[in-house]
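Morning F.,

Quick status update on the modeling queue. The single chain you submitted on Monday has been processed. Sequence for confirmation:
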Amino acid sequence: MTSPIYIIGNNPLAHYLGCQLQSAGHQVIMLLDRTLSQTPPSTIEISIKDDRRLTQQHCSLDAALSMQKNAELVIITSFPNQFNTAVAALSPLKIKDAPVICFTPFKDMSYLLPIISNNLYSAFFNGYIISRKNSISLEGRTPDISIYSHNQQEPDPKVLEIFASASIRVTKGEDRLFDFWQYIIPYALCSIWSAAENNKISTLLKDKNNAQILHSLVDEFCAMAAVDGITPNKNSIMKKIYNIPANYVYPLHQSIINNGKNDFNFLTSLITKTSLSQEINIPQTYKLLKKLYNSALP
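Structure tokens below.
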């Protein structure tokens, strides 16, 4: 009997990866946060719509509160504010030497090595998933994944084989800290900007008066990256922001619409700690954060 792939983080990315892997013939089990539900569903029903390929598929993913079998692979997609309680479902005895891939975008993940697994990878998902009730849809270009081994070795062939079987392209990153900032700058910037203004990024960019605001925001985030000795590729960041699909809503914005605050503490902490540590002047960013505090999060 084959070992299952466990996925933690009951969110659109988890659902997308789960459906892709299950459709490729893998056994997938969604590990749910027991603090959110004492009587979890036995299955999670998800439909995936891909307008580019004019396809739609339905998946019924098994769900559980704990690991009952040895893992083939563990995938973590939890939001940072849910991370600690979510990973409580993990059992080191069931993980053993199985690869653990973490998409939660922490800058420093070294503290997780003795807790979770020495075979730990951090990963960035380069794509856009829109969630509507029990349905998700892919927007924009075909997504891919960048992974980084924290034991400084080549990626486990098992990881590459599993994702390849599900037609998910995986690339090995060379400089995790550089790619962290290349990923987090557009993600954090667009998250707080769209949430503060209660508008999708595509809508904000239609206003020519916002062009200078965007440039200022990118410059301020690049200044924060410089604290780590990183010089981000500003042109690449600007291009990524202008190519955000028209219908895409960032998780922070969507969460605030639903009276939550996923990503809020994580992003504000990253911004404030980084800027204060070197007394970096980021007036445009702080203006957005203040607006969030005063309006979206009364």
